[in-house]
Design goal:
By secondary structure, the protein is of the alpha+beta class. The protein folds into two domains: 39 residues, no CATH class; 32 residues. Helices cover 39% and strands 27% of the residues. A three-stranded antiparallel β-sheet has the order 1-2-3, with no helix packed on it. The longest helix is centred in the last third of the chain and has 29 residues. The model has no long low-confidence stretch (mean pLDDT 90).
């Protein structure tokens, strides 16, 4: 993991297309601005984990349905 120290108004560059800028520091909260192309999905990590779990559950459900359909054909 790369650890950087930035002040308000400073930014970091990720590749050619993504810039993360420190907008504000207030107590224990930091406001970040992220400039990225529209085709880049950006999620808070807890939301991303929920998406992964929902996709995994949907995949398991689809596999179960396909298995039941195959059993019904026999």
């Amino acid at each position: 993991m790369l650890v950087l120290t930035r002040k308000v108004g400073e930014s970091i560059q990720i590749g050619e297309d993504i810039t993360v800028k420190v907008l504000e520091v207030e107590g224990e909260q930091i406001k970040l601005g992220i400039d990225a192309p529209r085709d880049v999905d950006i999620y808070r990590s807890e939301i991303y984990q929920q998406i992964l779990e929902a996709n995994q559950q949907a995949s398991q459900t689809k596999n179960s349905i396909n298995l039941l359909k195959n059993l019904k054909k026999d």
